[in-house]
Amino acid sequence: MSRFVDRVTIHVAAGNGGHGCASVHREKFKPLGGPDGGNGGNGGSVRLVVDPQVHTLLDFHFRPHAKAGNGRPGAGDNRDGATGEDLVLHVPDGTVVLDADGSIVADLVGAGTTFEAAQGGRGGLGNAALASKARKAPGFALLGEEGEHRDLVLELKSVADVGLVGFPSAGKSSLVSVLSAAKPKIADYPFTTLVPNLGVVQTAGDVFTIADVPGLIPGASTGRGLGLEFLRHLERCALLAHVVDCATLEPGRDPVSDIDALEAELAAYQPALDADHGLGDLADRPRVVILNKIDVPDAADLADLVEPELAQRGWSVFRISAVTHQGLRELTFALARMVREYRDSQPKVAARRPIIRPKAVDEAGFTVSPDPETPGGFIVRGTRPERWIAQTQFDNDEAVGYLADRLNRLGVEDELTRLGAEPGAPVTIGDVTFDWEPTTPMGDDVPITGRGTDIRLDRSERVGAAERKQARRLRRGLHDDEDAPDGA
């Protein structure tokens, strides 16, 4: 038996970028062939795409982890690595994507709508791409970036024109089965629908969809019973239809009190899509009242008593029987007319325009703040500095020197100097903490040394620990052991 799943948590991971290659061209009679290391390939991304053939989130319930392909590393002879394969996840129409904090990040409506759930990491540059006037033959390459990792919540909110609202066993499933070709579960004993059922209703010139959702009970707006699962699927409905059981034998229930209880729950529920899509509260949607099971004699008498009171509220009232099909024709045409009027009243959907968010001209792209946990330390935050840290091979001195030049050009060193940083102060960027040493001023040529080395890292004007220890001993009047007399 198939299962319907309308809320899942998925863990998506994009592919990592491939590492760049550090290679030197070697050929007979060409000793100075130059760098020829290729770039690493970009990692694959994870995308969600609306597929009309998918109607449930069941696949993600059993396979919540999704991983895209990694980029391949570069190679010598200027060969770039292959790009990682993208992973496309097919989701039903009406899927809402939320982040770990519960904020809506995407509302996927319409076949083909795409959302990039996780972006693949960029491949690292090879030494051929890093060659410059200062570094004609770099002995290093950049590492590939890690792909984005995210935990997302997928919620399916049914896309229907008419939503049937009612207590359990009010006859909603029976009504959907006779108005459309849908075949929900129907039985002659009390039970409630556990999953939404969608049906397509066709009239002379109109086609609309109708949704049968789990039954509502008092307290549903606060999560009692299946209320929240029920109300979620009504957020997109243009028209709400109260289905009332006029033949119920439960004490203390009648059509008017049932409708009042339903209206109280609709008014208390706050749709999650209202803020972004302007659908409004459920209490503001158009209403109709359907008095069901009037084929029962006592039910017909009760309908005669409550119909005038319901009509005074300004609602259209229909008396039907899903068993004998009494009143279904009038109900079908009335629902089609109300749906058509709602569609005509809505503004035309304009094509989405690309959103451009230009950066300010004077935006530095990073921030420097004192480290609250380390006295005299600083923390550098920013997309580019943190990305450069992840791309650096710290076991290669030339790569570290290249990182220092990039940070200097960005203005990190000037900002540290302005904030009063002393040479040797611990500076944290991303996951790496190092002792800050001012580099050579901009415009100076990089000293030419062996491949993979940087002479600037070997010189330092800062007093080392051994020298500070020796100075402290001298201030105390102590001498080295070699200068002390025998037996001292």
TrEMBL record:
Residues the record lists as binding GTP: 166-173, 191-195, 212-215, 292-295, 321-323
EC number in record: 3.6.5.-
EC class of the enzyme, as a word: hydrolase
Example of a GO cellular component annotation carried by this entry: cytoplasm
GO MF term set: GTP binding; GTPase activity; magnesium ion binding
Residue intervals of the Obg domain: 2-159
Oligomer status and interactors: Monomer.
Protein name, as recorded: GTPase Obg
